[in-house]
Every structure is written in structure tokens, then in C-alpha cells.
Amino acid sequence: MSFSRALLWARLPAGRQAGHRAAICSALRPHFGPFPGVLGQVSVLATASSSASGGSKIPNTSLFVPLTVKPQGPSADGDVGAELTRPLDKNEVKKVLDKFYKRKEIQKLGADYGLDARLFHQAFISFRNYIMQSHSLDVDIHIVLNDICFGAAHADDLFPFFLRHAKQIFPVLDCKDDLRKISDLRIPPNWYPDARAMQRKIIFHSGPTNSGKTYHAIQKYFSAKSGVYCGPLKLLAHEIFEKSNAAGVPCDLVTGEERVTVQPNGKQASHVSCTVEMCSVTTPYEVAVIDEIQMIRDPARGWAWTRALLGLCAEEVHLCGEPAAIDLVMELMYTTGEEVEVRDYKRLTPISVLDHALESLDNLRPGDCIVCFSKNDIYSPSINEKGERELEPITTSQALQIAGRAGRFSSRFKEGEVTTMNHEDLSLLKEILKRPVDPIRAAGLHPTAEQIEMFAYHLPDATLSNLIDIFVDFSQVDGQYFVCNMDDFKFSAELIQHIPLSLRVRYVFCTAPINKKQPFVCSSLLQFARQYSRNEPLTFAWLRRYIKWPLLPPKNIKDLMDLEAVHDVLDLYLWLSYRFMDMFPDASLIRDLQKELDGIIQDGVHNITKLIKMSETHKLLNLEGFPSGSQSRLSGTLKSQARRTRGTKALGSKATEPPSPDAGELSLASRLVQQGLLTPDMLKQLEKEWMTQQTEHNKEKTESGTHPKGTRRKKKEPDSD
What are the start-end ranges of the E strands in 475-631? Predict the structure, then answer.
């Protein structure tokens, strides 16, 4: 199965044999080392097999994107291989290649080097095209092909050349061991040497919502010489920021889009309130508070809680969250050699599930809170075997979080009540709340920019999205961890892939938080990246032109959503301004613009509310086709339905807009459909409901001795009642 040097040299033309012998040897050795005999080949096979079976999981080769290797054109030195032997007969070469491809031994040998059936086939097609389409070949492969065509060598002798070509189009084959080392995520505590150098005290404040657990942790934060609060939301970070400063404890604010320092000289305060992603794992603190620690299991953001838990350099780390996270936290802290003290809290105010549903927004009372969900998001977790989207109920943990917001200890609403919008959902809510909360099994992890850069060093031609896929596939984690979902990151990576950016800059752009369901926000990320690549600063004047400022108050739900998208674009600018200050220089002006936009949105919401309230008037409804006695019923139903739409439409449901007749001829019902407040299907349902109500109303009249319109009625006497 290996070619012989004696045969190779003997077939050289007599006049050139001595002169070219050394040249041929030197041409072959850079690729394969000494000419391999059978023994040499066996040793290579053993090495490949042991490497392939090193206990690592088998990679998903569908992620390996083949590179293009162009055929060789005419060489300036001429076709040396043809001069040494003779020109190749391409028909004979094709037969040799086909025979090589069909050899079971070759396929097995390829598998030993990481070429499964898919990769082997792709590599062979590329190899064959390269051989057949090249004007001239390297002297080494030319000579071997010539020998095989004339029966002086075996088709198997092509394997070293084939393997070399396969590694050219699939460079991952040549660096699998290095990639596995880079993506080894099995000991995350070692990533934070500063935290490991100190003995931290971990206190877990465990309890349901409204139990005082966060309050007690924050009191320790206030009384410390220095501290950091890590929250899941900008709103919570702002709340602690304001409370801390109000209590006389100077505190800075750090979120993805905002930096606020309270010291007049701009010096950092001893305390900082931040979103969990923004916490520093190198700054020493006396006390750290990590809120909602159970979010360590979050499929997308869990990595941030893991990083804070393992990496914060604080003498005391106070965790606030559900009891379901206790066991996992204790296991993780066992690996760091740190003990966990658990403090249990009970709910401070009673809470009950009502026996009746809300049914209508008209039944809302002061102090009520409505929690809405996007239908698109709810229907996206599950698809049944028929390919139909199914509604997936919220988890017990989510239900407890939502229900637990009712009845705050420090408010005038001491007793909490929870219910559903529709009566048929009430029993499901009660069932969900009775279920036990499953314990949290694993904490999220996330590849760093440094790790991705090391991957890119080995795979320089791979896209960032493909690098992420390969990293996740090669990664190895302990059972206590999982790699977070990176679909949003990959979405952004693919969006800006064609824009020339350095890998580190590209990585930062892809970590920017955007709503990929908003086209304007996505196109803005693309535009911002394009401006950056041109080295053109995104100034205040440029952004005003881009968003077409000034903006008018919204007149319908669609306008409101458009303004919200603009608001998100300003958020994106602010987020990038703290990463690339020179290219996004006008953060303060943009923040002022955003505050002005907030006022426009609020005014628009007020106007939309007024428009819907006007639906009760006969003039705007223009319902001449309906009996006069029923107009108030339908208008009331329209009012309720429009409110219901207003509450859910802003969360992403999409309305269908029919062809638009002249505005002056539209009834309000048609206008509500056109403006996105109602859909045609909803309007049909309203008409159906009205017909049912009208039938029942007429029946009641008949039973009470009254008659519907069109029948004779006896004139009622003044004192008949």
C-alpha cells in the first residue's frame, strides 16, 4: 500500500535520473517526512487511531464548512512532473480516482483521521476536481499518479495526498486536539484566580417573593464599606441605585446602556449597582449581592449569574433567590472550598387565588397589575407530532414569580390576590401553583472573546457564527454546567458577517442586546457596524437624520411599535457608546433625545386610550346596519376587545390590514382594523358575540311581555310602574 523509492527512481528517464533524484526526495519529504514503508504507515495509523479515540465526544461534522481549494494554473517553471515522467491521461486518472474512492480500506483509513462518510465524500469531490481541473500538478502527486496508471503503484498510495487536501478544505481536522483544549469548560472556578485567592463567606437568602430576603441582603450592602449589587434588570439596578443614595450611601450605576457616577470629581463611589452582566470580577468589595440567583439556569443569560457567583471578589457574597437553587449553589461552592450559610424566609403577606376570572378589563381595580405574554413567544417553545404549534403553560417557578408580586408588605395592599383573564384558565393556574418547583440542576456558561479568538487563530477562514457552533460542539462541561443558548449571538453574527471588522469588534457587536423580531433595530445594528467599518463616527446629527427626527405622537398601535423600535435603537447606540466611545461620541445628547422620545410615546398612549374610549359614540361607530337598541352593546364589546388588543398587541402579535377605502367613509370598526387595533377575525368574532347577545336579549323581551322592534306595543300608562 506504499510506493517504493527503488521503483520510483528506476522509472525516471535515464538522462535525468541522477540529476533529479535529490529534488524528488526533497519535494516529497516536506509533506510526509521519510518515505513511508508498510511499517511507517502502520505507525501513523496507530497514532491517528489513538488520537481519535482519546475519550472525547465525536464532533458534529455537519458544522465543518469546506473551504475552496482552487485548481492550479500554468506554472512558471513548466510542468516538471510531465518532464520527469510523461503527461497524464486524464481519463486514466479519473478511473484511478474512482477506484480509490470505492476502496473500503481507504474509507476506514479516512475515518481513523476524522473523515466520516460525509466529510470523506466532500473531500474526495474536491480532491478529484482539483486533480482533473489543474493545468499542472505538484511533481510528487504527478509521479505517483503516473505510476498508478502504469501499474507500478497502487491506488491506495494516493491517500497521503488525499489527506493533505482534506486538511486544506477542513482545517479543523488538523487542530482538533488544540480546539478541544481551548473549549474545555470543565473547571470554571479556575477562571477567576482573584476570587480563588480569598476565602469568601457565602450567604443564601432563600424564600418566595415578598418575604424580605432581598431587603435583609441590601441592609448588609448599605452598612458595608464597599459593595456591589447585581440585578437581573435595569429597573432593579436603578431602584437600588436610588435607594442607596437616598440612604446616604454614595452609589454609582452601571448598566449596559448607562454609567452614572455620583461623586462630583467623577471618582468611583465605594458602592455600585449594576446589571449582573456588567459586574466587575477584579474589583474587591466587602459585600456583594446577587439577586434572583435562580436565573443561573436561564438558557440564554445563566452564564452571567455563574460568572458573578464564581468570580466576584467580595468578603461576603449574599445570594437572593428561590430554594430550588440551594443544592446547586452548595455543589458549586464545594468545588471552590467555600461553605454556604442558608437563611430561610417566609412570605410576609398572605396570597390567594380567586375563584373568579377577570373576564374583562372593565373589572380592573386600583392597584391591579396585568402580566401579558406574546402569543408568538408562547407558541414558539413546542411543536407537536403533526407539526402544529402548541401552547406551553408557564412553569411553576414563573407562576410563583408572577403571582408573588401581589400584596406587597410595604404597600396598602396587604393581601395578594391572583387570577386569570379567562375563566377556563383558572383551574390550570391553580394546578400549576400546587406543583413542586423542580430543583435547579446546572449553571450556564458562555465562551469568552479570548476563547473565540484562539479558535479563530486555528480556523482563520471560518465565520464567527461557525466558530461559535464548532466551539459549542467541541466544548466539554461537567454535569453541573451547560453551555448557554447562543442563537441571538449567531443571528447578529450572520447579520453583519459581510462587513469587514476585526474579530474582537465583531464579537462586541454581536453581544449587543437587540430584539431580532424588530426589523428596524436589526437594520440599525447593520448600519452601525457598516459606519464603524468605514471609520465614520456616528454623531448626534447623523443619528437624528437616520431616525428621521423629529417624530410625531403615534396614532395607532403600529405607530407606537415603530416608536418603541426607535427607542431600542437609541438604547443600542448608548450600549455601543460605552464600548466604542470614539465612534459613538454623543451619548449624553442621545440620552436627552431618548427622554424626549419617552414623552412622545406617553402622549401617544394617552391619545390611543382616548380614541378607544370614543368608540362608544354612535357618530364614530357609524353602525346604521345594526338595530339601534344593540349599538351600545356592540360598542361596549368593541371597547373591551380593543383594550384587550391594546394590551397584547404591543407584545408582538401581528394584525392584518385590509384594503383601505376613503378615510371619510370608514366606520370606526373598520378604522380599528386598518390601524391594527383589531383584526378582521376579531371583528367577525365580535359580530358573532353580538348576534348571540341580541338573540338572548330578544328572548328576554319576549318572556317579559315586551316585543322586539316591528311589533305593536300597548302604550304604557304614566303610573303603570
Answer: 481-483
pLDDT in tens, 434-488: 888 889 999 999 999 999 999 999 999 999 999 999 999 999 999 999 999 999 9
Q: Which residues of 163-178 are buried (b: 16+ CB within 10 A; e: fewer)?
A: bbbbbbbbbbbbbbee
Rounded CA gap, 127 and 141, in Å? 12
* Pairing, β 259-260 against β 443-445: unpaired
How many angstroms separate the Cα of 407 from the Cα of each of 65, 211, 359, 422?
A: 56, 11, 21, 21
Q: What confidence score (pLDDT) does residue 661 get?
A: 39
**Distance separating alpha carbons of residues 622 and 640, to the nearest angstrom:** 18
Query: SS3 breakdown of the chain: % helix, strand, coil, rounded to 5?
Result: 55, 10, 40
Cα separation, 210 vs 226, in Å, equals 26
pLDDT tens digit string along 307-316? 999 999 999 9
Tell me how far apart the alpha carbons of residues 39 and 155 are, in angstroms, rounded to a whole number.
Answer: 18
- Sequence-distant (≥ 6) Cβ neighbours of residue 249 within 8 angstroms: 222, 271
Q: Which amino acid is at 26?
A: S
Q: Do 159 and 145 contact (CB within 8 A), yes or no? A: no
pLDDT, mean over the chain = 80
Is residue 39 within 8 Å of residue 102, measured between CB atoms? no
**Interval 249-271: pLDDT, tens:** 999 999 999 999 999 888 999 99
In the three-class reduction of DSSP (H, G, I as helix; E, B as strand; rest coil), residue 444 is classed as strand
The single-letter code of the amino acid at 297 is: R
Q: How far apart are CA 404 and CA 417, in angstroms?
A: 9
User: Are 244 and 269 a contacting pair, CB within 8 Å?
Assistant: no
Q: Distances in Å between the alpha carbon of 582 and those of 15, 577, 587?
A: 69, 8, 11
- C-alpha span between 7 and 161 (Å, rounded): 19
Can you tell me which residue has the cell 479556575? 190
